[in-house]
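Below: protein 1.
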Amino acid sequence: IRRRVEVGVALSVVKVEEVPRPASDEEMPLFFMIPSAGAGRGLMESDESRAARLQQEGLAAYLDGQYDRAIQLWLEWSGIEPENPKAYMLIGDALSRKGDLRGAVEYYDRSLDLDPGQVTLAIRRAGVLVAMGESERALQSLNLYARLFPGNPDVLLAQARWLIENRRTDEALAAARKLLKVQPDHIEALAM
């Protein structure tokens, strides 16, 4: 114990303790090892994180134009989450890019069976049907979605476009008028 006296301050006590030196690295036990970047796949990965990884890797492959790789990854993802409609939609998109329109429609149908509320996907599916030469089937699909989602501007516009492309001008104008009742300032409907 050392005593220290300061001028104008009461007597204070300072305790000095001895602290042992740290052990050298060789003596320290290793409780864990940090895996290298590629070794992370060997660790237990939850289904949720694996599905998210497969979705992202598939998206990267898709954006790089590697559609077969994207499909492979998304099929693996759909095996983990078979009730997730997004996996099937993305597989359909990749098949469409590859030119396999029938396959695309099959996967779009799977996705729509799981979540029929995907209006944009239903419209995309109708476009693929038109490209396949199944124009009437596309119109039936659009009409079904117009009944399921009355007043949906995207469906009304898709119907009007289909009607114009198939030279059914009077019906197209009626669809455009219906769209304008829902959205009076809709530019595409005003242009029809």
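Below: protein 2.
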Amino acid sequence: TDSSVDLVADSISIVSGKGVSGVDTALNTVGSLHNTTGNVELTDVDSIGDLAPGLVIASLTNANGSVTLNVPSDLDVYQLAANGSSSDVVLTSGGIFNLLPVNNMPNTVTAGRSLSLHSTGTLYLNSGFSAPQSVSFTSDADVKISGVTFTLSTVDPIVIQSESAIRINGTLESDHSITLKLEQLLPDHGV
């Protein structure tokens, strides 16, 4: 990535055989992005005066490679899969982050190895996800898990970390362990 935007569009559909890397975009929606091998690495920026800031991932599939997305504002994900056995998914949102359910799909996000989601705003987990190695959810605001049952079998502990609150309305199960970290910052009263 560099300081210039490589692709500006409302919505894109891409089929790639060898990866999508180092692309700076100003998009509203990834309608479909399907890749065969190699990594998918996108950094999205909002255009000045963008009437729909943020990014929607309708469908992104990488058959054999990792997926890394950096979005400075809101991120909504409906379907994302990195299927290779060494494939990681790393998604970072500078705003509110939503994993949203799709009819008849048990998991919105699937990683072949590890899954890491980070949000500056509230992180909403309203749909399933899977990763066999490790799962990490962090938010500078709240983490809200709502109305779903998560049963995970990971090698490493599942980590859920928030600087504000962790709210779970559903079931969270693991064959290993689940670590909840709440790091509320107390106001400095000059003491």
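The mean pLDDT is 88.
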